[in-house]
């Protein structure tokens, strides 16, 4: 900064000439018709250039700041860089024009002194004496620099962090206004939440609490429907569990008497006949269990009778197998593979179908006149009920034809066989009364004439002193009829004889040496 005791220099015009008053310092365009007040000495001393300074900047300040010394006299500015000189120097064609014209503007020779098209120059000597367009373009600090001591620096107000109100609202709200605004926000939020909850409870029918009305009976089942029939039959069908140590098997049984008598298959309880340690248990539909005692069994027809000590059991009503016809609806109820109370529905496929199977414990094979059905019957259904659409027992399920190689293997292929209830009644009554049963006996051992043929049963052996020998039947004879029943194979010969009572006399037709013979035979007991 220059010394204040030094007299300020007179301002100069654009050509370096000094003026005598402030009136000469105003632009020519602004002096027309305007009165410029005189400049007093105090103002001139305060605002005029320091002595020795020709341009807008004081180069002495740069020298003192650069070397740390205070130079009494002014110093000339350093030579500007060549790039700035080239960029900001005057064009030779604008000689005499104070303010350089834009590049590319052609100025006529007669207008150069006036600045263009006969007008005043863009910058005249009387414009602003403090702005010298002819000075060199140099970047630097201001001409005057104010000395700031440590005391003044300390007197400056210290910066403080912005408050939340200043950040959000720019500091325009008071603390009390902020508190009121926060309370109002909370009240509005609470009212909005309450209203939303109320509308959601009233309008959202998917989440509201409801109680669905129910009726006592949703579906009306007509009499004779399978569901009504099963409801009556199922409580009288039980599962039969036969256990010996850790091994055992499961079958089915039917309660046929209020004293607790149950009919089942002989092969279901066969292991208990020769082993007293085998336990037989009847499991009812309600889950109750009762120990069962073996009353009697008939291996030849695969029937057995058990007894349990239970009070007021549900008893299955007995029907008649003679009234069945092929195509009648039948229902099988039992425990296939241990699945209690399994129900399958089918029809009567055939009646009076002679079937035979090896005995469970050896001896004479099982043979009976069966009801064939396509209702699914599987291992475990043995001893279960075959009922008609009225819920009457028409047969006891016993055998199936399957593709398995071993007995008890494989499943249903639509060929199931049941013992007719008419035969069951007769055998069960005898077992309950006597513990055993007797069948009519012809006294011959026969075999089918040819496999899968219906040409009769050929006699292989005749029991000495038996009914057949007394009637004159010989080995090699082919029996084709017993009473009114045609005999097609060996199994049918057996069932045809058992249709009669012991002691009955029946007519037997046979073929001997190509001739038909008829003999009367009085049947004995096996």
Automatic annotation (TrEMBL):
PDZ domain residues: 434-514
Keyword Signal: no
Basic and acidic residues bias (residue ranges): 12-25
Annotated SMART domains: PDZ
Coiled coil regions in record: none
Transmembrane segments: 178-200
Keywords: Hydrolase, Membrane, Protease, Transmembrane, Transmembrane helix
Disordered: annotated segments: 1-141
Cross-referenced InterPro entries: Chloro_Bact_Ser_Proteases, PDZ, PDZ_sf, Peptidase_S1_PA, Peptidase_S1_PA_chymotrypsin, Peptidase_S1C
Family designation: Belongs to the peptidase S1C family.
Family annotation (PANTHER family): PEPTIDASE S12 (PTHR43343), PROTEASE DO-LIKE 8, CHLOROPLASTIC (PTHR43343:SF3)
Listed name of the protein: Trypsin-like peptidase domain-containing protein
Organism: Haloechinothrix salitolerans
């Amino acid at each position: 900064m220059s010394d204040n005791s030094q007299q300020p220099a007179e301002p100069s015009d654009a050509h370096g000439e000094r003026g005598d008053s402030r009136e000469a310092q105003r632009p020519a365009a602004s002096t027309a018709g305007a009165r410029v007040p005189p400049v007093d000495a105090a103002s001139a001393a305060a605002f005029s250039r320091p002595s020795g300074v020709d341009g807008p900047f004081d180069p002495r300040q740069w020298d003192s700041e650069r070397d740390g010394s205070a130079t009494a006299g002014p110093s000339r500015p350093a030579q500007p860089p060549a790039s700035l000189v080239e960029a900001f120097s005057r064009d030779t064609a604008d000689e005499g024009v104070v303010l350089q014209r834009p590049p590319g503007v052609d100025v006529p020779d007669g207008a150069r002194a006036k600045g263009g098209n006969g007008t005043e120059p863009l910058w005249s000597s009387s414009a602003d004496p403090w702005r010298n367009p002819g000075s060199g373009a140099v970047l630097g600090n201001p001409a005057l620099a104010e000395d700031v001591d440590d005391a003044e620096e300390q007197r400056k107000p210290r910066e403080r962090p912005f408050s939340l109100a200043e950040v959000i609202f720019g500091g325009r709200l008071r603390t009390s206004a902020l508190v009121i605004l926060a309370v109002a926000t909370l009240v509005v939020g609470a009212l909005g939440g309450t209203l939303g909850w109320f509308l959601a409870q009233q309008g959202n029918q998917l989440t509201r609490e409801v109680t669905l009305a129910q009726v006592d009976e949703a579906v009306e089942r007509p009499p004779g429907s399978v569901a009504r029939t099963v409801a009556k039959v199922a409580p009288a069908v039980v599962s039969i569990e036969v256990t010996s140590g850790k091994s055992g098997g499961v079958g089915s049984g039917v309660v046929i008497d209020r004293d607790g008598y149950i009919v089942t298959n002989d092969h279901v309880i066969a292991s208990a006949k020769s082993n007293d340690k085998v336990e037989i248990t009847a499991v009812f539909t309600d889950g109750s269990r009762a120990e069962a005692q073996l009353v009697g069994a008939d291996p030849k027809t695969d029937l057995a009778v058990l007894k349990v000590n239970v009070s007021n059991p549900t008893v299955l009503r007995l029907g008649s197998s003679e009234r069945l016809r092929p195509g009648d609806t039948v229902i099988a109820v039992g425990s296939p593979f241990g699945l209690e109370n399994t129900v399958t529905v089918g029809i009567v496929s055939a009646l009076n179908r002679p079937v035979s199977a090896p005995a469970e414990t050896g001896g004479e094979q099982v043979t009976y006149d069966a009801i064939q059905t396509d209702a699914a019957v599987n291992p475990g259904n043995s001893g279960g009920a075959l009922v008609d659409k009225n819920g009457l027992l028409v047969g006891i399920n016993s055998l199936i034809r399957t593709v398995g190689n071993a007995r008890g293997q494989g499943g249903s292929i639509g060929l199931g066989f049941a013992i007719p209830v008419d035969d069951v009644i007769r055998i069960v009554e005898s077992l309950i009364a006597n513990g055993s049963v007797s069948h009519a006996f012809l006294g011959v051992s026969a075999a089918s004439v040819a496999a899968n043929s219906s040409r009769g049963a050929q006699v292989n052996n005749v029991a000495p002193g038996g009914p057949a020998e007394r009637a004159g039947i010989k080995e090699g004879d082919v029996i084709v009829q017993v009473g009114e029943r045609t005999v097609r194979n060996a199994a049918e010969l057996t069932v045809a004889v058992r249709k009669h009572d012991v002691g009955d006399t029946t007519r037997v037709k046979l073929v001997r040496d190509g001739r038909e013979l008829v003999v009367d035979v009085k049947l004995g007991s096996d």
